[in-house]
Amino acid sequence: MTALLDIRQLNAWYGASQALHGVTLQIEAGEVVALVGRNGSGRSTLARAIMGLVRSEGELRFAGHALGGLRTFEIARLGLGYVPEHRDVFPTLSVHENLQLGVAPRARGRIPRFAFDDAYELFPVLHERKRTRAGALSGGEQQMLTLARALLGDPDLLVIDEPGEGLASQVMGQVAQCLRVLRDRGVAMLLIEQRLVIAQDIASRVAVMGHGEIVFDGALASFAKRPDVMQEWLGVG
Prior knowledge:
Layout: E1 5-14, E2 17-27, E3 32-36, H1 43-50, E4 55-62, E5 65-66, H2 72-77, E6 80-83, H3 95-102, H4 116-122, H5 124-128, H6 139-151, E7 157-161, H7 169-184, E8 188-192, H8 196-202, E9 205-210, E10 213-219, H9 220-224, H10 227-234
Parallel strand pairs: 3-8, 3-9, 6-7, 7-8
Antiparallel strand pairs: 1-2, 1-4, 4-5, 9-10
Helix pairs in contact: 3-6, 6-7
């Protein structure tokens, strides 16, 4: 079976500094993989490389399409969504206008799985503030908006970078519920998350990054039996 996302021997750079070293990782359709590791391990760089936002070399394919050389919007149109770490909302536009910008074109020839009603049902506060400028939202509300906008792109795979960063536990609970809905509707995810409790609740597989490499990749049950990996690469255990 061909993986939905197929990464092989991927290297990436920021200027002259190499950040990824031969990363190999596959994600199947509908699969949720938690990507964990310490800050600076290369997790966010991998997300940016997938989306064509940093210089990279190696094999990078999504749904059979080679991603090398494609621009970010072209990658998104293939069905690959991205929720960045730093909540890139359009601050002068309203919540609803931000969501409209995320609506997928119908080029893939199918009825979208997600609509505005889904976004507002998952995040009622966005419905309450749909006419509010996005720049006036709290950090948690902006995180919800970024995730809802990505959802309206009807992705087959969603790359989500630190959705829980800086969020109160109640808000994170709403975000986690959204991720479970996405998973249950068959959306594959690469979930970059520091909180192991969240990652283990959503994902079926764990990949651990260290020094720009994948140092562990296995089922959730296998990861739970590796306290050595947790201690060396995550500082827990």
